[in-house]
């Protein structure tokens, strides 16, 4: 047989079997004679005669064959160019007809046997003399070749024409005519269509059967019966044993195994799935998660895909999107990152493209809307996951940076971009995402799914149904997927949108098996025999549907289950079945036995195809076949094409066509697993993988590997099986090290750090030994591998490995300092992430000393103060210089500015004396060398110092304005956080600052600056508490924030929220001792122990404890904390300078002091002086334009007037009215209620109960609006007193 290579590599030519193509070329007879010839062929009672016609046709065949061989040779020379390793999505369905011809021939099989594929066989006909194998692949004897006439029109091969005799039925003749028409349609379709035409299986021959033969498992064609499909595909004519050992042909009585499907006996599970699906269809946006679990073969995939039927039946507008992805059985940390999610997303993009083409009204503006939702950075990151996205919205570039960044930012940015993409698509149409085989999931995929399902303050805009199936016998409590499910269950309690459904599949019961057999065998056996068979089958298969199908198919193949046409019943002997199958242990045994019956060539190809993963392209399979024929001598002369091999595997039920014979996938994981068992041992399998990897590397174009990361992952995984065994001086080691580096970088681009770490580890192991790897020849490669590996280990939290990798590179004395930059940066980040601030500071100082900066060891405070004073006195002059600066070009100084920024951040937490020198030096370098990316945060830090240390709010604002003017997207979160938390609140209303801080939270998550983002988010929540946001809404915001901090690995920053969150909970319900911050959110003593190493947490806790004591009227405790912490001496401004919440603490302390004065003026006279001192500080702020403390000033003035016997009551009343008006104007429900309450106290102290009741009632209304139930309860007692 000639190889048919046309169409394998995406050509426009058809991919028909050669014998059919050859026949089609002969269908050029005169159409005017069609009717006569058709009439003759239908009614002739003898074979068509005419040796002349036969000789003419033979000459024409020889000529056509020579021309075709030349054409094929020319096309084969082009074979291998432009091939792709993996086609992510099924191609459009083939234009060719599939199986119609086979079905037609089956219907006409009363006297014929249909061959599903054409193979050479010397046993096809009983003949004498030598056999002649025609070019079309049919086998005829020499006598038939010379004497059998052919149809002069060439409409059917002679072997078909000779079957038309006078004994044929009219129905059979009609079906033969239909066969001719189908062939003619195929010929016309090939000429008219430019698209590739690939038939799913070869066009069958029709040949006569012998009148009587002994029954055997070998057909009269000489083909082993196991080569025919066993699981529901069209088959060749069957032979059953009849009395007298006479053979009768029967084609319609075959076990219709596929018609039953795996869903038999799954009514309960289908109902559960249907319920989850209808929940997903509800108008209210939901996140429905369905897990389908069970052992291999229980029908998880089939049940999961049942949801596709639900979607088609219930989605009247055809808007819903259903996409699938499957994880593969490879080492999880060496797998293609997000393999299943990537395939699903590619399918999603392809579906959107089709809808854009077919439905311009609803989807025409989709690219524009998506562009509004995703920025260029988002698109750049997502292209690595779904290349088809570029076709929708355009974009490009590289979302991964090798510069000086926190490499956890890559993970944050990628997760945010993916979540934005899914959120947008959900707003267009609800999504059903089916992921299979989660027992093989990689950690990166779980991280991105967790991020997708995490609750946040934005909520879901539309529904998503996530359906995940897995083998629960392979997932124990320590499995990463089990931990993921545990996280989701915890989240479900706090997230009303998240709904979870668990479905368990077990083996079918014995009763179900019996019922199945009755339906399968059409109830033609008595109850007793059927029950015995059911017991036997169930005991052998444990009711496993996949195993059961394989077992029944093997019984039929081995002749243990046969159909008797004369008795019209199935014949079997249960005792014989028990004995014959006694050694069968599991489904792998059956499948192995089945695969061992295939041809040696197919047995050699199957393990190599299994190495490609769950899905592979025909073009790749073609490369595999070429590799087998070149590597194995026994297959070097094989003439089978890859289409022949694939169609044989399809007929055997081993693989499934995913679209037009261009992409295939394994029919079941167990089939792929069994394919590996065809190899004798692991060493040989590793050798096969390595050889295949080399072959693919040689044949796949370099540009394909660069543009298709999935192709490189497959090849690298194959090569890594034996690359480490290569000789140390083998140049291939360096080549493979580069491939591992590229695979590691591709993984890092999409934040798949675990997989990246493994690839980079392989790459480092392939480098030359010891000092050889640092020779100039390998220096750049070694540095790239070590630096990227250290970054990957940092991202997964392996800090010991980070230190080892960095130490080895940094110990190389010959390396220039800038070459070590990435290693120094990642080591600094690693120390800081472990809260080793002192060590991180020392390392930063060590590097800065190499650049040219050495901080003063003596007199730091004095020198620093002089520098800060100079900044304050020369604000306008310095800002003028900064505005004229150009971007910095010196790479060393750029790095130095970055390190000074890190020094300021770390020293602020461990050695405050280093903070001012770092800032002044950074400003000096900026003025001398130009602006850098970190210039904006630097200017914001200077603004903080001016506001906090010198109360120069106007100068601070000028620096803050300049910082925002020059900020880039990567530092926007940090700049906004510093400006609006520490500077602008002195001159801007708090509601504006809160809005900008929330913007910093979202921007920081998007850009990956998580530290600044979540600090900004916390500060926004605390400010909302102090400005009287409804406590119930605030508690919901706190929950959302806590979920996000957990999701992004920022738990330590999340600790900051705990005191405010607990206080809000205490106020929102009746608490007898709410001033103690212990409850469902936190335990005060535990919080102290956990945060003891971090001084700023202690300052924060004392601030919130002061506020809690104030709102629960424990004024003595407030005064005690004030004196302990030195608030009356303003020491808090040194601990946390310019922090937005400082004014609140001052106000609460002063008001508590005056509350004690009201109780005993003489005893608490010192406290009155302390209150006046704080009032003076607040007056200074008000005079400098602070709008957020004006009502504090008025209320304190009112309280001082109220306790003074020298001032008329009207003075206090005017101040109270002013405080009430100012608080109301700012919308401060808490402070408005407080002012009304204190005004009521004033009236009550002076005997005006009516006035007291009036203001108490207004205070109660305001507290109710605030949601402070505890505060309402405390005020009720005084209200009753006023009424009495």
TrEMBL record:
<dbReference type="InterPro" id="IPR053159">
    <property type="entry name" value="Hybrid_Histidine_Kinase"/>
</dbReference>
<dbReference type="InterPro" id="IPR041664">
    <property type="entry name" value="AAA_16"/>
</dbReference>
<dbReference type="Pfam" id="PF13191">
    <property type="entry name" value="AAA_16"/>
</dbReference>
<keyword id="KW-0175">Coiled coil</keyword>
<feature type="compositionally biased region" description="Basic and acidic residues">
    <location>
        <begin position="61"/>
        <end position="74"/>
    </location>
</feature>
<feature type="region of interest" description="Disordered">
    <location>
        <begin position="1"/>
        <end position="157"/>
    </location>
</feature>
<feature type="coiled-coil region">
    <location>
        <begin position="162"/>
        <end position="196"/>
    </location>
</feature>
<dbReference type="InterPro" id="IPR027417">
    <property type="entry name" value="P-loop_NTPase"/>
</dbReference>
<protein>
    <submittedName>
        <fullName>Transcriptional regulator</fullName>
    </submittedName>
</protein>
<feature type="domain" description="Orc1-like AAA ATPase">
    <location>
        <begin position="263"/>
        <end position="461"/>
    </location>
</feature>
